[in-house]
Amino acid sequence: MVPLALATSLLWGLADFGGGLLTRRMPALTVVVISQALAAAVLGVIVVATQAWQEAGGRLWFAVAAGLIGPVAMLCFYRALALGPMGVVSPLAGTAVAVPIGVALFLGERPDTAQYTGILIAFTGVILAGGPEFRGAPVRRQAMTYTLVAAFGFGATLALIAEASTTVTGLFLALFVQRVCNVVTGGAALFVSARRGSPVLPEGGRAVVMSAMPALTFVGLADVAANATYALAARIGPVTVAAVLASLYPVVTTLAALGVLRERLRAVQAAGAGLAVAGTLLLGSG
């Protein structure tokens, strides 16, 4: 379970970093729709090859719900990444872990003392990493608002996709349905945005989009793979532990932003990131 949950954090962290960079070059809705459409196309091939459609059942409604919520969360998150430092926005988005943990506790799951301690330490670290920005400039406050909305949406998606299937082939079908709903919802929003005069294509037009296709494909597929590894991890081990281990993805995004974009963190934010890692390691050893 631990390797799967940590793989989730790595994949989500890299996908978030790539998505954040892309939204600095083109509209966030365009990034969401294209990346999810590419992922849906690949999943469609997998569903046909594995005959996963035979797993269709009532649980797919969880995937539909995740697919409707997901584009809103991704749009808010990408806008936040475009407005604020990735090294701050991404850790604060890690508060999404509160939703699946809350659901698991409500359903009767009870972590042991060490796991509760790890959850508390990791969650405190995430808050410290993002909290100072609430006192910053208006654009930073706007970025944090977007981030909190995205965090709730991500958390709800995690809880829903974990319930969407009971088999591996069923998971392929659930992820395909989720992505199709993502594309439909995001496409409708993109259409409305275009009707209101907002740009659909970046400056430079289709040539910029075509040049970004490898990155868009990576973002879409990494997000799909992360959902898959998380669903498997949540099925194998306690959801409370799997969710917190998966929430380590902000550290990946933060490290990428530090290394590639040369972003700098405040001391309290660095301490928060360290606490998040410490709490996650405690969970992993529990």
From TrEMBL:
It comes from the Bacteria. Pfam families: EamA. The keyword Transmembrane applies. Keywords: Membrane, Transmembrane, Transmembrane helix. InterPro entries: EamA_dom, EmrE-like. The chain crosses the membrane at residues 28-48, 60-81, 87-107, 143-162, 169-192, 212-232, 239-261. Residues 3-129, 144-283 form the EamA domain. Belongs to the EamA transporter family. This is EamA family transporter. It comes from Streptomyces litchfieldiae.
